[in-house]
Amino acid sequence: MALRRQRHQDTAAQQADVTGSNPLLLEFRARLEPTHADVEALTARYAFAIPTDRALAAIQRYSASGVVEIGAGTGYWASLVRALGVPIDAYDPAPPMSADNKWFHSSAAWFEVQPADETVVAQHGDRTLLLVWPTRDQTWPADALEQFLAAGGRTVIHVGEGPGGRTGDARYHALLGGYVHCVACTYGAHDLACVCGTQARWQQVDRVSLPHWPGHHDDLFVYSRRDVPGEPLGPRGR
Ligand SMILES: C[S@@+](CC[C@H](N)C(=O)[O-])C[C@H]1O[C@@H](n2cnc3c(N)ncnc32)[C@H](O)[C@@H]1O
């Protein structure tokens, strides 16, 4: 068993990012059977999702004018995006080590995460908007999408789960085009949120698989703005 683990670790080290700058990926690969405590500790130290070279390359590819990340936590993803030479500003209302952040109150920051909530996207309509594990069932991720649209934003990258998962709420996923129909009304599932009044404003254009902790189903999704006929032009005339 010890030999098997050693071999796994050797292979993992060989597969590591060439820059060697992604310790969370190495930690993930070194654990054959991670415990709940492992996942909690590594999430608090790094991030909820595990970046890979392919995922980071996708962020670079879709971010010609740079990135604005909100809800950035420790700034782990932002630090790796910046390491690729991509301009990025990262925000969180409670950057580490803030006592107000239930996940990262004792975590060291990987990047200079500036204190701001979702309204900051209004200043960055020229960027790609990055959200990594936006909080489940809170309204701010959907508010961010609407404010980013109003600011003329064209590209959103969501790293997380799909509708009904652990990230975002029903309106957020409806705006991202994640519902063909309203599940609550179609099936009479009145414990679910109704999204009949929410129009899909983004369409998925790319997806990159991520390594997952057991029971997680997160991937990286890229969305382009869906223009609506008659919509007023954004601040940048588009
Ligand atoms: C589930 S954590 C994800 C953190 C980080 N993106 C990651 O994946 O590790 C959600 C983050 O959203 C932040 N947050 C809470 N309210 C927010 C708001 N109104 N606008 C932006 N971020 C918010 C929290 O402080 C927290 O750091």
Feature tags:
Rossmann fold; 8 helices; binds S-adenosylmethionine; seven-stranded mixed sheet; 238 residues; disordered N terminus; alpha/beta
SSE arrangement:
Layout: H1 2-15, H2 23-29, H3 36-45, H4 53-61, E1 67-70, H5 76-83, E2 88-92, E3 114-115, E4 128-132, H6 140-150, E5 155-160, H7 170-175, H8 183-186, E6 202-209, E7 219-225
Parallel strand pairs: 1-2, 1-4, 2-3, 4-5
Antiparallel strand pairs: 5-7, 6-7
This protein binds S-adenosylmethionine (SAM).
Report on the structure:
The chain has helices spanning 2-15, 23-29, 36-45, 53-61, 76-83, 140-150, 170-175, 183-186, and strands at 67-70, 88-92, 114-115, 128-132, 155-160, 202-209, 219-225. It contains eight helices and seven strands, in the order ααααβαβββαβααββ. The chain has 238 residues and is α/β, with parallel strands linked by helices. It starts with a helix and ends in a 13-residue tail after the last strand. The protein has one domain (2-225): Rossmann fold. The chain is 29% helix and 16% strand. Strands 3-2-1-4-5-7-6 form a seven-stranded mixed β-sheet, sandwiched between helices. Mean pLDDT is 89; it is low at 1-16. S-adenosylmethionine binds at residues 47-49, 70-73, 92-94, 101, 103-104, 117-118, 132-133, 135, 140.
Quick take:
This protein is an alpha/beta fold.
Give the CATH architecture: 3-Layer(aba) Sandwich
CATH topology grouping: Rossmann fold
Helical amount: 25-40%
The averaged pLDDT comes out at 89
Going across the biggest sheet, name each strand in turn: 3-2-1-4-5-7-6
Helix segment count?
8
Number of domains: 1
What is the radius of gyration computed over CA atoms, rounded to a whole number of angstroms?
Answer: 18 Å
How are helices and strands ordered from N to C? Answer: HHHHEHEEEHEHHEE
Oligomer: single chain
Helix-strand category: alpha/beta
CATH class: Alpha Beta
Distance between the termini: 59 Å
| Strand elements, count | 7
- C-alpha geometry: globular
